[in-house]
Amino acid sequence: MWRMAAKKGSTPAYKCTECGWTAIKWVGRCGECQAWGTVVEAGAVKPRTAPARHVERHAQPISDVDATLAAAAPTGVGEFDRVLGGGLVPGAVVLIAGEPGIGKSTLLLDVAGRTARAGKDVLYISGEESAAQVRLRGERIEAMARTLYLAAETDLATVLAQIEQVDPGLLIVDSVQTIASADIEGAPGNVSQIREVAASIIQVAKEKNIATLLVGHVTKDGSIAGPRVLEHLVDVVVQFEGERHSRLRMVRAVKNRFGPTDEVGCFDLSDVGIVGLPDPSGLFLTRTAEPAPGTCITVTLEGRRPLVTEVQALLAPSGQGGSPRRTTSGVDSSRTAMILAVLDRHCGVKARDSDCYVSTVGGVRLAEPAADLAIALAMASSLADQPFRQGTLAIGEVGLAGDVRAVQGVPRRLAEAARIGFTRAIVPKGSLGDESTPQGMDVREVADLASAVRLLNIAAAPAIGS
């Protein structure tokens, strides 16, 4: 049904706005890119655009271009500036996406208040809340300023008029899915409306050199709602991450034309607003007097920032027939199952008949393979019911052959762990090279997972290898 392309000699009556696929009949889903609701009636073919008779701004040598016009201005929120690459560039358009209630509006209102108090005019367009509701939040997070202007608008023409009247140095639109143009058919939030709204606001931002922050909704699977072209049009795409029941919020750049995309900002969302966390490692550790079985510490790299994180594992005899239960939180379930198989095959850790539960502390999500060794050792410790010596951490990727592979940034990770107070580390063989180990830290290198298990003196426990 979806491959119903136009026949030879016939005129295609419908066209996909995303990929250009054509069809002679309307369908709800594009047969090429599989996008829903993007097939619209094709208009008449327009002639090619003729060259302009007069060019107002002539091309100039690259060495003559004034680079100071693209200098980033700090927002006053250090963690947000870290993600943006130093601050907001005049004329740049930043798209901020995240789930409802994760703190997008709170962060942007804080940025608006700080920018206004620094002497700039700021225009905050709210399409979801009234101006009174925004003011109440502004009072709660202390974002009040005389040059911060609020407007509750959902009509694109009125929004453009507000921008023309205020002529702000910073524009915030919350959100792009709630604004609609009367000249475009369809309800706010559909593909055509989002494309028109985004294109109009971006054009004004570039012409007037206005730094612009757009809030974007996300779909059920976490992707940004609307056409994919929206992410191509903007200069920066920032993603909000975090568990709804946790105060920790992480902000990372998915796309950034003015800075790196490997930086992450950490925030604490509380009743008084959202506060940056320059040193968030303590949030991911359990404060106990004595080490507990089934726990292991690792150091993960979020961008270029090392974060000390605790992994907890619980392996218990399965109380039900059939396959044992495998439950994870904060780690990849498929990778956890792989590590279990490696432990069973190469280390003699008989965990195949045990229920396995693996979780991280503080709601952090471990995505990089450097946490594999810590997950494996936490499982072995839980099954042996034997804790590690206090102050021990593990870093490394585990392969299917039972080998422990090197990961990047080991010296930086160890330096962060030593700063917090850790004294013993298990790392892959050859990770340090010519780098010196941090003072006061005992670093042991291992080539395979079995060596790491033996090194921690838990291989002789009755529960392992029995």
TrEMBL record:
What are the start and end residues of every segment in region (Lon-protease-like)?
Answer: 355-466
GO terms (BP aspect)? recombinational repair
Q: Which Gene Ontology CC terms are recorded? A: cytosol
Q: Which InterPro entries does the entry link to? A: AAA+_ATPase (IPR003593), DNA_repair_RadA (IPR004504), P-loop_NTPase (IPR027417), RecA_ATP-bd (IPR020588), Ribosomal_Su5_D2-typ_SF (IPR020568), Ribsml_uS5_D2-typ_fold_subgr (IPR014721), Rubredoxin_2 (IPR041166)
Q: Its Gene Ontology molecular function terms?
A: ATP binding; ATP-dependent DNA damage sensor activity; damaged DNA binding; hydrolase activity; zinc ion binding
- What is one Pfam family matched by this protein? AAA_25
RecA family profile domain residues:
69-218
Q: What are the binding positions for ATP in this chain?
A: 98-105
Q: Which UniProt keywords apply?
A: ATP-binding, DNA damage, DNA repair, DNA-binding, Hydrolase, Metal-binding, Nucleotide-binding, Stress response, Zinc, Zinc-finger
UniProt xrefs under Gene3D superfamilies: 3.30.230.10, P-loop containing nucleotide triphosphate hydrolases (3.40.50.300)
Q: Motif location (RadA KNRFG motif)?
A: 255-259
State what this protein does. DNA-dependent ATPase involved in processing of recombination intermediates, plays a role in repairing DNA breaks. Stimulates the branch migration of RecA-mediated strand transfer reactions, allowing the 3' invading strand to extend heteroduplex DNA faster. Binds ssDNA in the presence of ADP but not other nucleotides, has ATPase activity that is stimulated by ssDNA and various branched DNA structures, but inhibited by SSB. Does not have RecA's homology-searching function.
* Comment, domains: The middle region has homology to RecA with ATPase motifs including the RadA KNRFG motif, while the C-terminus is homologous to Lon protease.
> Belongs to which family?
Belongs to the RecA family. RadA subfamily.
What is the recorded name of this protein? DNA repair protein RadA
Highest classification ranks of the organism: Bacteria, Bacillati, Actinomycetota, Actinomycetes, Micrococcales
Q: Its gene?
A: radA
